[in-house]
């Protein structure tokens, strides 16, 4: 973690598929990194969301393991979307972090 970053939780670089649901729309993308507090996802080509949008992210860890977490879009960059997880989902987030331990970024 960069010393200039002000994060509560360390990030884990991973690469897996995800579906971001914004209102009634779904956007397929990939997860680039993950922490107890949120995730950085690739910005979908037709992304219609803005910062402060409420979303649900379905993390597709494998064919049998899909974990959904609700959150708030806190950053929209040129190529990524940053989502902060909503409070009160600790059990789901812990399960997500446990399952994601096997997902490493491919060099």
What keywords describe this structure?
globular; 1 helix; six-stranded antiparallel β-barrel; 50% strand; 107 residues; single chain; mainly beta; Thrombin, subunit H
Strand and helix layout:
Blueprint: E1 12-22, E2 25-34, E3 38-42, E4 54-62, E5 65-76, E6 80-85, H1 90-100
Antiparallel strand pairs: 1-2, 1-4, 2-3, 3-6, 4-5, 5-6
Organism: Ahniella affigens
Domain PilZ: 5-98
Protein name: PilZ domain-containing protein
Explain what the structure shows.
By secondary structure, the chain is mainly β. The chain has a domain at 12-69 and 88-100: Beta Barrel (Thrombin, subunit H). The protein is built from one helix and six strands; from the N terminus they run E-E-E-E-E-E-H. The protein has one helix at 90-100; strands at residues 12-22, 25-34, 38-42, 54-62, 65-76, 80-85. A six-stranded antiparallel barrel has the order 1-2-3-6-5-4. Strand 2 and strand 3 form a beta hairpin. The protein is globular, with a radius of gyration of 13 Å.
What is the rounded distance between the termini? 19 Å
Assembly classification: single chain
> Total number of helical segments?
1
The CATH architecture classification of the domain at 12-69 and 88-100 is: Beta Barrel
Offer a quick outline of the entry.
The protein contains one helix and six strands; from the N terminus they run ββββββα.
